[in-house]
Design a protein that fits this description.
The complex is a heterodimer of chains A (164) and B (65).
Chain A lengths: L7 H10 L4 E4 H7 L9 E5 L3 H14 L2 E2 L11 H4 L4 E6 L2 E6 L8 H4 L3 E7 L2 E6 L1 H11 L2 H19 L1
Parallel strand pairs in A: 2-5
Antiparallel strand pairs in A: 1-2, 3-4, 4-5, 6-7
Chain B lengths: L1 H11 L17 H8 L3 H20 L5
The chains are: A alpha+beta (164), B mainly alpha (65).
């Protein structure tokens, strides 16, 4: 069995090249802040402004993005899906990509923007990432068991970072 | 005297001697956090990417011996 290719950098490079406005959240965000964990998908909250959705659609086309939800494997995310508050769980040729219209208690791109930092994650690759404090707040808001389970680790990262 | 104190500490805690400061009270490995914090964000992303690749290769049984 051929091991699927997972390349977060390639996904991010494609989104940036197409000028997509987005914020990295979730597990990859936690890792970028220093949390030692493994995650298999890249979670982003995208701007749902019409121009950005056009750019996002072009990036998804290049990434070969299709739904990874059972029964929707052959479906591409359409404009109405991308404009919604919901979560689009996709598989690209560089691995899983989750597009989140809103997170936590309905916070969208514009609301999250003030709680972000820019990070250099490659020689010519700068991305916008949710702050660790904001990530913790989101996980507290959702209240799901998997999110609550991540909180001790994230809080310790915050503490250790303050000491460093 | 120091030995007795050390022994009591060991009995009172499941931690191994010398592990003080390596784990938080809720069991989080602080050494891994400190290692990750010593890296740049780009290096952290590479660590994640390599970890996921390794895990997938192990799952699929194509790890090189």
């Amino acid at each position: 069995m051929e091991t699927p290719r997972v390349d977060y950098v390639a996904i991010l490079e494609t989104l940036i090249r197409h000028g997509v406005d987005f914020i990295i959240v979730g597990g990859v965000c936690a890792v970028l802040h220093g949390a030692p964990l493994a995650t298999f998908d890249l979670d982003i909250v995208h701007s749902r402004e019409p121009d950005n959705l056009t750019r996002l659609s072009a990036a998804l086309e290049e990434l070969g993005a299709l739904y990874r939800v059972p029964g929707r494997h052959e479906l591409k995310p359409g404009p109405s899906h991308l404009a919604s508050e919901g979560h689009q769980l996709l598989m690209t040729r560089f691995g899983p990509l989750d597009l989140l219209g809103t997170i936590g208690k309905g916070r969208d791109y514009n609301q999250l923007l003030q709680e972000t930092v820019e990070m250099q994650v490659g020689p010519a690759l700068k991305v916008r990432v949710s702050t660790l404090e904001s990530l913790i707040k989101t996980k507290e808001e959702t209240g799901q068991e998997k999110d609550r389970a991540a909180l001790p680790l994230l809080r310790r990262v915050l503490e250790e970072r303050a000491k460093a | 005297m120091a030995q007795r104190d050390s022994s009591r500490t060991t009995e009172a805690s499941p931690r191994l001697p010398g592990s003080e400061g390596t784990h938080s009270d809720d069991g989080v490995d602080l050494t891994l956090i400190r290692w990750m914090l010593s890296l740049t964000p780009a290096e952290r992303l590479q660590v994640l990417q390599q970890s996921v690749k390794s895990l997938l290769r192990l799952r699929d049984g194509d790890a090189k011996s």
